[in-house]
Design goal:
It is a single chain. This protein folds into 2 domains: 1-50, Orthogonal Bundle (Arc Repressor Mutant, subunit A); 58-199, Tetracycline Repressor, domain 2 (Orthogonal Bundle), CATH 1.10.357.10. The chain has 10 helices and no strands. It has helices at residues 7-28, 31-38, 42-49, 52-73, 81-96, 99-110, 116-143, 152-164, 167-172, 182-199. Helix 1 crosses helix 4. It is elongated.
Length: 205
């Protein structure tokens, strides 16, 4: 086990929180159960994270940073803009339909009204990691003549809709077919990028 005051120990506690959320659901994941799973006291949780909502907010931040690493890691310096867009879209599907994302979103939904700041943090942190990287890739695609658009945010919204569609909502609601296989993710990503090119082939959006 990591040292009690180390960043690794903090990550262990966040991993324990996700494990309890998986087993108990977002409502049943009490600080007492999380502390027991993490082998620490409730006082430690309160000292480090403030309260249960602060603990879940810390997971949002951790997952946002992991998202940035995963999306960046999916790219290749030697690949062209189209290939990197496909890699990006496949990684985005993987992240947004993955277990951690689903659990966090369910927690945010369960607390709407009482703790809207968690949903807000999830929205803001997620966009902060995804949008700038996506727009950079889209601008490279424009420079290579693959798509013509004026508004990078609009082009991203189009690509996001083509890539994710209802899959994230389906995964949150527990639809069995919402999370594609690895090969399906790549195929969906390739189709999304091809549709983007067709939409923006005729001129600025």
């Amino acid at each position: 086990m990591a040292r009690r005051d180390s960043p690794a120990r903090r990550r262990e506690i966040l991993a324990a929180t996700l494990k309890v959320m998986r087993a108990e659901g977002p409502v049943g994941a009490s600080t007492a159960k999380i502390a027991a799973e993490a082998h620490c006291s409730k006082e430690t949780l309160y000292n480090w994270f403030g309260d249960r909502e602060g603990l879940i907010a810390a997971i949002v931040e951790e997952q946002s940073q992991a998202m940035a690493r995963a999306l960046t890691g999916a790219l290749s310096a030697r690949a062209g803009a189209r290939e990197n867009l496909v890699r990006f879209c496949a990684a985005l599907i993987d992240l947004l339909t993955g277990e951690a994302s689903v659990l966090i979103n369910r927690a945010a939904i369960s607390q709407m009204g009482a703790h809207d700041e968690l949903a807000h943090a999830l929205w803001v942190n997620g966009r902060a990691q995804i949008v700038p990287l996506a727009i950079t890739l889209l601008e490279r695609a424009r420079a290579e003549g693959l798509a013509r658009f004026d508004d990078g945010e609009e082009a991203f919204a189009t690509l996001f809709g083509l890539t994710i569609g209802e899959r994230q909502v389906g995964a949150i609601l527990g639809a069995g077919d919402a999370r594609p296989t690895g090969e399906q993710m790549t195929a969906i990503a390739e189709h999304a990028v091809a549709r983007l090119e067709a939409i923006y082939a005729g001129g600025a959006g």
